């Protein structure tokens, strides 16, 4: 393949992705607005028109913001690749730190810094304008800056050693460098999962043991009935940043813990909390976490195998704006280019995730109150301003959870 031909293929794939993203967002906006003035019959008794319209307006605002953000990201991608951004930064990094691993790490840091600075205004607008406008934002400028500093330092502390190791494999492991890189990435992911609950998450939030005796008794009874053991049930101060509510499991093995947002506990009744927790337990009972990990690792294996084939292809570098190849430039080009070609396949992962949600719901119905799960889910949809009328095709591509109407219908028809 010639560099010119690959450039054309890349631009065509990028154009297809851009058109598809904008079309899906346009469908979402049109569909939600078309159903804005009437609450779906299945929810008319529990959700008022004002709340329904609030969710519709929030969904439309997010879709419009996401469309603009995606188009901006495409411009940044073009600037870094065909515009010569990576090539220029690579030349600068090699002048400052040489053409070895040090120079490669500096290039990665520089590209990430440029990308981070360019994305910062969008993050600020999302937090302090969009989320603020709809009454969700609780983040202060001071907290936003603290989070930004912590996440940046954490990314450097965790990401740079892994990147350095991959660069070493590229330099020393010959044609099977990608296999070593895959193994390192898998071990890295498992290590982060193990330390996240006790070392990483507390850097950003406070976790207190659940002190509601009645709710704790309910949860302990459910855990015993399901045969599930964890390292504790904790309440997280999610209200510091947002009024959105959520619950999740984190860690694995002895580090497993159950986490409820404080906003969730304030909103749901005891039987609803129990049902929501039963849903989360369903993910573990059906081994969804393990299945997702295995799927992710398998996809990464084949992606890195493809990277191994492209490593020595001059047309790949030159076709993406880099005339003088380097290991770090290759990694960045591959990581930036891959999503351009895989976005049209994104619906496959979303479909699998929605299937898991249905399975977890059925598990919850078998171990807790179906009515409580239904009412709890409706409250979550309402409190998070999740639209009850998403566009089906947009939902197919983007939503990891089934639309509310389908999910509640499945519960009623259990």
What does this structure look like?
With 414 residues, the protein is mostly helical. It is 72% helix and 4% strand. It is built from 16 helices and 4 strands. It has helices at 3-34, 49-80, 85-97, 101-133, 141-172, 177-200, 213-226, 262-267, 270-285, 288-310, 314-319, 327-342, 346-367, 370-383, 392-398, 404-412, and strands at residues 207-209, 233-236, 247-250, 257-261. Strands 1-2-4-3 form a 4-stranded mixed beta sheet. A hairpin with a 6-residue loop joins strand 3 and strand 4. It starts with a helix and ends with a helix.
Labels describing this entry:
414 residues, 4 strands, four-stranded mixed beta sheet, single chain, 72% helix, 16 helices, mainly alpha
């Amino acid at each position: 393949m010639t560099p010119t031909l690959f450039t054309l293929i890349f631009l065509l794939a990028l154009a297809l992705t851009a058109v598809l993203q904008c079309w899906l967002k346009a469908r979402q906006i049109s569909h939600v607005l078309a159903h804005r003035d009437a609450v779906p019959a299945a929810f008319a008794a529990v959700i008022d028109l004002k709340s329904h319209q609030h969710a519709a307006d929030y969904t439309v605002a997010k879709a419009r913001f996401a469309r603009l953000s995606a188009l901006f990201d495409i411009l940044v991608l073009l600037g870094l690749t065909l515009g010569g951004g990576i090539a220029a930064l690579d030349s600068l990094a090699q002048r400052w730190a040489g053409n070895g691993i040090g120079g490669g790490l500096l290039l990665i840091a520089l590209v990430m810094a440029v990308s981070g600075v360019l994305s910062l205004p969008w993050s600020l607008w999302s937090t302090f304008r969009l989320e603020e406008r709809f009454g969700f934002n609780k983040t202060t400028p001071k907290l936003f800056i603290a989070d930004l500093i912590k996440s940046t330092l954490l990314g450097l502390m965790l990401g740079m050693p892994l990147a350095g190791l991959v660069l070493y494999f590229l330099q020393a492991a010959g044609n099977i460098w990608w296999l070593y890189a895959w193994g390192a990435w898998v071990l890295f992911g498992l290590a982060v999962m193990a330390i996240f609950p006790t070392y990483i998450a507390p850097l950003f939030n406070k976790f207190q043991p659940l002190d509601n005796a009645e709710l704790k008794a309910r949860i302990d009874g459910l855990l015993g009935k399901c045969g599930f053991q964890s390292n504790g049930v904790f309440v997280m101060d999610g209200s510091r940043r947002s009024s959105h509510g959520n619950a999740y499991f984190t860690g694995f093995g002895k580090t497993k813990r159950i986490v409820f947002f404080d906003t969730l506990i304030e909103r749901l009744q005891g039987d609803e909390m129990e049902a929501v927790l039963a849903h989360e337990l369903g993910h573990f009972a059906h081994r969804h976490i393990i299945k997702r990990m295995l799927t992710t690792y398998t996809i990464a294996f084949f992606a890195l195998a493809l990277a191994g084939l492209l490593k020595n292809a001059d047309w790949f570098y030159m076709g993406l704006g880099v005339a003088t190849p380097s290991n770090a430039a290759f990694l960045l080009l591959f990581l930036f280019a891959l999503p351009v070609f895989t976005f049209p396949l994104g619906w496959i992962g979303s479909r699998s995730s929605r299937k898991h949600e249905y399975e977890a719901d059925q598990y919850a119905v078998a171990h807790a109150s179906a009515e409580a799960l239904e009412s709890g889910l409706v409250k979550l949809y309402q409190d998070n301003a999740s639209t009850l009328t998403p566009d089906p095709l947009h939902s197919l591509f983007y939503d990891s959870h089934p639309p509310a109407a389908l999910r509640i219908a499945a519960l009623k028809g259990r």
